[in-house]
Amino acid sequence: MKTRRDAYQAIADPTRRAIIQMIAGEPHNVNSIAERFAMSRQAISLHIRILTDCGLVTIKPQGRDRFCEAQLDPLQEVSLWVDQYRKHWENKLDTLETYIEKLKREKYGKQKKKHT
Amino acid sequence: MENKKRSTHDRELLISRKLDAPVEFVWELWTQPEHIAHWWGPHGFTNTITIMDVVPGGQWSLVMHGPDGTDYINESRFKEIILHKKIVYEHLSSPRFVATVNFEDQGEQTLITWHMLFESAEEFMQVVKTHRADEGQKQNLEKLSVYVAGLRKQTT
Known about the structure:
The complex is a heterodimer.
Chain A: H1 7-10, H2 14-25, E1 28-29, H3 30-36, H4 41-53, E2 57-62, E3 65-70, H5 73-109
Antiparallel strand pairs in A: 1-3, 2-3
Chain B: E1 12-19, H1 23-31, H2 33-39, E2 46-52, E3 59-65, E4 71-82, E5 86-91, E6 97-106, E7 109-118, H3 121-133, H4 135-155
Antiparallel strand pairs in B: 1-7, 2-3, 3-4, 4-5, 5-6, 6-7
Helix pairs in contact in B: 1-2
């Protein structure tokens, strides 16, 4: 299955999130990243490649080393849209609130039947 | 460093609201089809509740009718029901999630908390992405917030 490479894809995996967290403070080389995780170097390399494809990591060669640097801007878009999605649910409660007010007005305004 | 116990913070949503009504009343609005049809779904939508069997294992089927005539079928199953306290349901249609709704009795008010746990971060991100892509939906939300703000002004 071919999936599009974007920030959503990047952070959908716990290992990739941990990698971003690790290099967000300062760039690390691929080896030192791989050492931190209980999985093969190849697996880590693949995650790093996905992160690179998604625009969250850039690789800076330094001598024989390759340093991974975090690019956090694309994540802002994600958090913006998570908020938007949250609002979608908040709106349900807004509507419920409005409905409660309406029923109360009907109930106390003119002793109406309990419910229809 | 890798999480052994799967953490959930990347695939959950939690919202809460203090509602100005006693818990028995809020419970009624949540669990009776004729009431829930009035407030479920975004503004501009109407709802048809075909089945709502509020017992553990009970089926809950509702169709949201979008303003453009599109029908959205929502199939859920209730997992846990504690009268006036808690409703847990599993949304079986896509996106799959388990929602836990808690009702806290605060006398004349009720604190309702709504927790949604998606099956996977992948699925959650997919929902967020789809939601992002759906401009019509976004406009609806904007319309709704304007509408609600308007109503609030009228009532205060």
